[in-house]
C-alpha cells in the first residue's frame, strides 16, 4: 500500500509534465468590455484551453462553465491582507469563488496576489498565511487535489538573472521565499513566474540582440552562453526561467515546476518605446507558442515543459501610462486578432479537426425551456430536425435534451456565420467535443457533409463587467557584467 501510495504520488506530480499548454490572461480594464458570454465565445472560437483571471469574477466563472477551459482564479492584492489574517475569510472566499463553481467550471489554480514581494512588500508577512488559509479551506472542501495554490512572482526578485547558473533571489526575501517554496513543495503545487523578455531587452539598452528576446535565430557570433554550465540560451525567455530554477534550487536543491503566469510583448508604445510594435508583438507571441509547444524545458530542466499564459487577451485601454501598458492584447473586443496570431496550433486534443465547436443542451437545463428552444430551433430557426424524428438516427434516446442538442447544434452550425448564437435562453452551451454517437452524426462533425464556421458573431457590446486592475509588468533590471557574447 505504501509503495502504491508513492507511485500514485509520483504519477500525480509528473502528470503535470505531459504536454505543454499556452493559455491567456484576461484583464478587464477596458472601456468596452465584451459580456462574459462574448468573452467565452471568443476564447472558444480561438480554441483557447487555459485562462487566468486577475480576480474571481463570478459572472465570467459562470460563463466558463461546461466549456472544458481550465481556469486559474486570483486573489487580488487588496484581498490578501484579510485572507492572511482570517481563516474564515479564506473559507468564505473559497466557498464563494471556487466551491460554488467546480466542477462545472474547471478551476485548477489560485494565484494569491500578484507580485506581492516586489509591489507591496509590506504585505509580505501575510502572504504565506493567506496561501495556507486558502489551502486549508480547500482541504475542508475536498478540493485541495484538483486546485493548487501559489503566488505569481516578478523577475524583479532575482536581481542578477544572467548568467542563470549564478542567479539567486534577493536575499532580503530569503525567509519569505523559503516559506513559500516549502508550501509549494508540501502541497505539490508549482511556482508562478511573470517573465517579460520585453523589459529584459529594453532595460539592457541593446546589450542583448533583439532576436534573443524574440526567439529568433542568433548568428554564430551572437550565441548566448552561460559561462559556468556552457548551456546555450536560444531565448531570453528560457534564460529567465532557468534563472528562476537556479534561484529555487539554492533552497535544499528543490525542484519545483515553474509555470509562466505572464509573458507578452506590447503592440504599441509611446515615443520612447520604439520596440513596442505590432511586428515585434506578432513575432514574440507566435514564436513563444512554438517554443512552449515543443514541450521541452529550459536547458537546466529539459524535461519539464514551460506552461505559459500570454499577457493578454484584450488591450486594456483604461490602464494608466506608459502607452505600452495598454497594448498587450492579442484580440480586439470583437474577437478578431490584432495581428496574424493563432493559438490553434495547440497540441491539445480538442484543437484537432474540429469545426470550431458544437452547440448542445446545457446539462440540467429546465425541461420546459428546452422544449421551447427545441420548438423554436426546428420552427422559426429553420434547423433541419429530420434526424430526430421517430425512426431516424438521432431519435434515440428519446429525450428533450437529446433532441434539443441536435436541433440547437444544427441551427448553430448554419447560422453562426450570420450572427446565430448558442444561447437559447441560457439552455445551450458550446463544446469542443463532437456529440455524434453511433449513426447519429451532428452537423459540423468531421463526418458530416455540412462544415462549420469558426468566426464568432458577437452581438452588440454588453455593459462593462467588474473592472479589476490587471497586472502591471515590472521593470527587469539586468546587470550587464555577466553577459557573455561568445565570439566564434
Ligand atoms: C479539469 O482539468 C484537469 C487538468 O487538465 C483535468 O484533468 C480534468 O479532467 C478537468 N475536469 C473537467 C471536469 O473537465
Ligand atoms: C532587494 O530587496 C530590497 C528590499 O525590497 C531592496 O531594498 C534591494 O534594493 C534589493 N536588492 C537588489 C540587489 O535588488
Ligand atoms: C538565507 O539567509 C541566510 C542568512 O542570511 C543564509 O545563510 C542562507 O544561505 C540564505 N539562504 C539562501 C537559500 O539564500
Ligand atoms: C525546442 O526548443 C528548444 C529551445 O528553443 C530547442 O533547444 C529544442 O531544440 C527544441 N526542440 C525541438 C524538438 O524542436
Ligand atoms: C474588429 O475591431 C477592429 C478594431 O476596432 C477592426 O479593425 C476590425 O475591422 C473589426 N473586425 C470585424 C470583423 O468587425
Ligand atoms: C482535417 O481534415 C481534413 C480532411 O479530412 C484533412 O485534410 C486535414 O489535414 C485535417 N486537419 C487537421 C489539423 O487534422
Ligand atoms: C421551468 O421554467 C418554467 C417557465 O420559465 C417555470 O414555470 C418552471 O417552474 C421551471 N421549472 C423548473 C423545474 O425550474
Ligand atoms: C436534412 O437532414 C437529412 C439527414 O438527417 C438530410 O437527408 C436532408 O437532405 C436534410 N434536408 C435539408 C433540407 O437539408
Ligand atoms: C467518423 O468516421 C470515422 C471513419 O468512418 C469513424 O471511425 C469515426 O468513429 C466517426 N466519428 C464519429 C464521431 O462518428
Description:
- It is a lipid-anchor; GPI-anchor.
- By secondary structure, the protein is α/β, with parallel strands linked by helices.
- It has 2 domains: 12-352, Glycosidases (TIM Barrel, Alpha-Beta Barrel), CATH 3.20.20; 358-431, no CATH class.
- The chain is 32% helix and 11% strand.
- The chain is built from 14 helices and 13 strands.
- It has helices at 2-15, 36-45, 58-63, 77-85, 87-99, 116-119, 124-140, 174-186, 197-202, 210-213, 236-249, 278-293, 367-378, 400-415; strands at 22-26, 50-53, 70-75, 106-112, 148-150, 152-154, 191-194, 223-224, 258-263, 308-310, 358-361, 428-431, 485-486.
- Strands 5-4-3-2-1-10-9-7-6 form a 9-stranded parallel sheet. Strands 8-13 form a two-stranded antiparallel sheet.
- Strand 2, helix 3 (58-63) and strand 3 (70-75) form a beta-alpha-beta unit.
- The model is unreliable at 1-17, 345-355 and 449-488 (pLDDT under 50).
- The site of one 2-acetamido-2-deoxy-beta-D-glucopyranose has 4 residues, from loops.
